Write the structure tokens for this entry.
Amino acid sequence: MGKKLGAASMSIAVNTALLISKIAAAFITGSIGLYAESAHSLFDLLASFLAYLGIRKAEEPEDRTHHFGHEKFENLSSMLQALLITGTASVVLFEAYQKFSEPGKVDFSEAGILLMLISIPVTYFTSRYLGDVAKKEGSSALEADSAHFTTDVVSSAAVLLGLIAVKLGFPQGDPLAAAVVGLVMLYISVELLLHSFFVFMDFSPDKETMAKIKGVLVAEKRITRFHKLRARIAGSRILVDAHIHLPHGMPVETAHTIAHEIETMILREVPQVKEVNIHIEPD
Ligand SMILES: [Zn+2]
Ligand SMILES: [Zn+2]
Ligand SMILES: [Zn+2]
């Protein structure tokens, strides 16, 4: 199993553990904040499972019906995740709104407080780990997952504060915390939707990445010039193509070697690049 899939599996395991303990705490306390967190964790689990499937499918090689590979399956899975999360967020926000005028009773809030005190650091360190793997291996799915865990810290902290508020005699703290959880979920789903939409519209990579790719061509002294440098994102990979100009009369063998060396240099410079297609023109 690759490092990326390993990290995705770990994310599933952590989300499962969080989900089970949050549901238990929600039942014990009757806190709507904890119920909201449970719904949130349920969809996080589903999301990390979808991310796992997306990464696995994206790693499949090209075949007869997908000549450019399967990378965009990763984005399709993000889009499905986003739609699911939007649905739950709406339910959570509606419930929080209804409970605000007459908050329910919260029992044994200590149990909920204790669970949140444990789950916040667990969530935080999972996010850090996923972020590290995402950076080293170049995976947008894991990067999204890591960013998600970071916002989960906000969500859990809101529930923690809500429970403390209830204990201090402010029963509205609980539905208020649930509302924060709902808003965090909405924020995540909008981000996911936008990102996958951009990829489906063949958006180019960010300026920094483009500058790195362009830098390789600018630094290459054997070519006289280049044009039509293009790049687009597919899943967590980048597809690049460019036209290079070579001195008139250069043997085809030499030109071909130079083209391949440029491809290799771009791949080394930007590890997310999946392939580079270079078109050769005489000067
Ligand atoms: Zn979440
Ligand atoms: Zn050209
Ligand atoms: Zn070749």
